[in-house]
Amino acid sequence: MADGIVVRQLNAWFGALHVLRGIDLNIAPGAVTAIIGPSGCGKSTFIRCLNRMHEVVPGARAQGQVLLNGEDLYGPGVDPVQIRRRIGMVFQKPNPFPTMSVFDNVAAGLRLDGVRNHALLDEAVEQALHHAALWDEVKDQLGKSGASLSGGQQQRLCIARALAVRPEVLLMDEPCSALDPIATAKIEELIVELKKELTIVIVTHNMQQAARVSETTAFFLLGELVEFDKTTRIFTNPSDRRTEDYITGRFG
Amino acid sequence: MKARARRIVNMTMGWLTALSAMVVVLPLILILVFLVYQGASTVNLDFFTRLPKPVGEPGGGMANAIVGTLILVGLASCLGLPLGILGGVYLAESRDRRLPWVIRFLADVLNGVPSIVIGIFAYTIVVLPMRRFSALAGGFALAVIMLPIVLRTTEELVRLVPASLREAALALGIPEWKVMLRVVLPTARAGIITGVMVAVARIAGETAPLLFTAFGNRFWHQGLLQPIAALPLQIFAYAIAPYEDWHRQAWAGALVLIVMIFLSSFIARIVTKGRYSGLR
Amino acid sequence: MVREGGTAEGLSPPQFARPTSTKGRWGDRLFRLLIRAAALALLVIVVGLVIVMIRAALPSIQAFGWRFLVTSRWDPVAEVFGALPLIYGTLVSSLLALLIAVPLGIGAAVYLSEVAPPWISPPISFLIELLAAVPSVVYGLWGIFVLAPWLRTQVQPALGATLGFLPLFQGPPYGVGMLAAGLILAIMVVPFIIAVSREVLLAVPNEQREAALALGATRWETTRLAVLRYARSGLTGAVLLGLGRALGETMAVTMVIGNRPEISASLFAPGYTMASMIANEFAEATSDLYLSALIEVGLLLFVVTVVVNALARLLVWSVGGTVKEVRE
């Protein structure tokens, strides 16, 4: 089920500001790829280009090729709305819909697709919550508001919501930065489980986290891809001087 | 197929909302067009300088009504501005615990009271004891309407003045009241003027509270203790009368009134354009 | 204008003589007294308004009691006053106005906040603010000479021909009447609904929109799921604010409603509202009881609008919107 993503010559702008420069990257299927780099290096912009969320901001645009299973997501006539079905996203700050129950939150994506059958929805929601390691904690509270959960639970709810539509890829933009260490640990465990079925791209400013969960890591700096290699190699023996400076804390 | 349906719904809703926006703006355009079309021809020098002619005689103008409106606004400002600005400063500066909250709440309540009810209030307080309609009564009613607007705007503006400015002045040993008068208020001046112009524009157009306070007058007023003409009152009286000539004058009066109101809004904008940059 | 780092305008150089001048402290006390007095003046005015109105309405309240609210006979000569037609007229005209203004207003607000390209929003918002600045009497003038004739010659005959089987659209086409009043009120109320709704919608955090978009929602679906649902109570507040405005509107309604204190099922029929009655009859009220009855009507209007507005502000505040005067 999992597909890899091939990125070719991806450029992105905010108005006249050129924020991503000619990115070439291969994201391996069924594995976790981490994106690291100092603030403002373009890592969030990069993953937002993968599910075409970048262009939602007025004045923002992107150009290049992003191939999902051979199909160019930036090709002519491709509907961004459909892409976001196949590539899900989890954000830095958990954002469940507060006016909806836990159940409705997870079912939201499916309902958008027109699924009305109660039995189907029940099953899909339960499965997604299992996948997100949240089922046991909320199974008796499916009717409670999505916002009534703790921070870590909310984030897992958002993950369940994203998983419910069965995407091929899951993008995670610093998913743990608003969470406490215990919640973070739970989500990292979850990521390790999920990669068996999904391709995951995770942006993180926490290098230890990148080292813990990912197989490959990409280092971005000032809108450019500086180095992309196996995680173990990047953190023990980076090829580029700038990478080494970053991971040893000389800047950023 | 389902995806296509969703796309169509999306586009349709996009167009529907755009349509709403256009429909909403339409009446304004219609009104402005009619105002100019019907009123422009009647607006001449006579209109601004002459008194209304007796029934049946064509011609005449609304000089007394225009002047009356200016006088009423002036009267209202004499009461409304000091109370409003000082009250606004109070809300922004006071260290009292409960009173500011109460005052703010009451100001909001007063803001929502229909202007005709405020007219009743002015009637009972001013007209009844004096046993006559008067410019004073009208001015009082308009002052009460203007008060909450000026109050809230001033409070907002004074709050916007950065604390660092105030602290710098205080640290120089300058007493608080001087800091307020010579530092804070001048900085907030542009915004306060805007608030005042907005309030003025609002009360200049008010008719209902004047119906039984200022009452209207076909001649020049004989002092502030007598009934006085006002532009909106005159427009109303002419509009509901059966005379064609008066209808034309009503349109002209409405055109002049709208121009006055829009002008004060524009002046407010221009005043704030240059001097505001320090605060926002 | 105070320049950063420079000296404040109009201040004399700091005095080295003594740190605290008694004159300054005295000035401060006076200042604090002055501003507190101004604030208290507002309190006195509002409380005074309530007290004065209750006292003036008392004779009528005592004379008619509950009957004032439920009987229909308004007879100044016989000194019998029942305000039911006024209450009916006020409610019906306001509800009709909302029926038209709410979908249009919220639709326009959604357009401005979620759909419109950035360059369209300022001019349209500006035009809408202009709409809010037009005085009631000018709307009324336009209503009498443009809207009512149009209704009388085009709209009402057409409605009567097609939907005349409904009691709503029966009766002779006067032009003026409930329909005209409802329409004019709708036009007057819509700018306020738009202004407040737009603020409420803009206050919805962007993360909510992103959450929906990332799920593969279209822009409309995002608006529906993430924005409108989130802003529900605030939008209700905006609607209530519109209601508050409509209830208190006087001049434009007086000029087009036909001024007949009767209850009718038809929208074509003339009617009367509480505010219109006061506007028309107050200056000519001959007897004390008559005046008192009119003031009781005013008191009723006051209470209803205050309650509706308070509710509205509560709702709007709860979503993080603010109720600013539509200005600039």
Give the gist of this structure.
The complex is a heterotrimer of chains A (252), B (280) and C (328). Chain B has 10 helices and no strands.
Describe what you observe in this structure.
In chain A, helix 3 packs parallel to helix 6. Chain A has ten helices and ten strands. In chain A, a hairpin with a 2-residue loop joins strand 4 (60-68) and strand 5 (71-72). With 252 residues, chain A is of the alpha/beta class. Chain A has a six-stranded mixed beta sheet with strand order 6-7-8-3-9-10, with helices on both faces. The model of chain A has no long low-confidence stretch (mean pLDDT 91). In chain B, 52% of the residues are buried. Mean pLDDT of chain B is 88; it is low at 275-280. Chain B has one domain: MetI-like (MetI-like fold), CATH 1.10.3720. Chain C has a single domain, classed as MetI-like fold (Orthogonal Bundle), CATH 1.10.3720.10. Chain C is built from twelve helices and two strands, in the order ααββαααααααααα. A two-stranded antiparallel sheet of chain C has the order 1-2. The longest helix of chain C has 43 residues, at 22-64. Chain C is globular, with a radius of gyration of 26 Å. In chain C, 52% of the residues are buried.
Strand numbers in spatial order across the main sheet of chain C: 1-2
How are helices and strands ordered from N to C of chain C? HHEEHHHHHHHHHH
Strand content of chain C: under 5%
The run of helices and strands of chain B is: HHHHHHHHHH
Output the radius of gyration of chain B. Answer: 23 Å
The share of residues in helices of chain B is over 70%
Query: What is the C-level CATH assignment of chain B?
Result: Mainly Alpha
- Sum up the overall morphology of chain B in one term: globular
Would you tell me the structural class of the helices and strands of chain B?
Answer: mainly alpha
Mean of residue pLDDT of chain B?
88
Main sheet properties of chain C: 2 strands, antiparallel
- Which architecture of chain C per CATH? Orthogonal Bundle
SS summary, helix count of chain C? 12
Judged by helices, strands and strand pairing, the structural class of chain C is mainly alpha
Q: Going by CATH, what is the homologous superfamily of chain C? A: MetI-like
The CATH topology assignment of chain C is MetI-like fold
End-to-end CA span of chain C: 22 Å
Count of all domains of chain C: 1
Instruction: Give the biggest beta sheet of chain B.
Output: none
